[in-house]
Design a protein that fits this description.
This protein has 120 residues and is an all-beta fold. The protein contains no helices and 9 strands. The strands form 2 sheets. Strands 2-9-8-4-5 form a 5-stranded mixed β-sheet, with no helix packed on it. Strands 1-3-7-6 form a 4-stranded antiparallel β-sheet, with no helix packed on it.
Amino acid sequence: MEFQKNLYKDGSVGANILGPKLRVVREGSSLTLLCHVRTKSGNSYKDTHRPPRLVDWLHDGKIILFTERSGVNVLTEKDGIDVSSHLTLSSVKMSDTGNYTCKAFNAAPTSIHLEVIQGW
């Protein structure tokens, strides 16, 4: 897949949630979103005031907290300049409808929209 080229002044490349930007799923099903982030080779965090959190997932602009909804899992892996993060929602609810954003440290964020529809 071709990545969105959201370039910042320092040359970092932004995030990309793989797949369509509009997702429609049935209530009760599971959903996994995969975000890929590529940063500039040799990107250094030594001048920052805190160590970077690799990826935050947001729902309608708010960081997703595991304590607010059961069935949420995030797996994030770093390999050199590449970061991959999987957000899994088990048993999707109507309240899960909205915008999901993958926001990586020092890289442009990206979003998709999720529509949850009632089951059969």
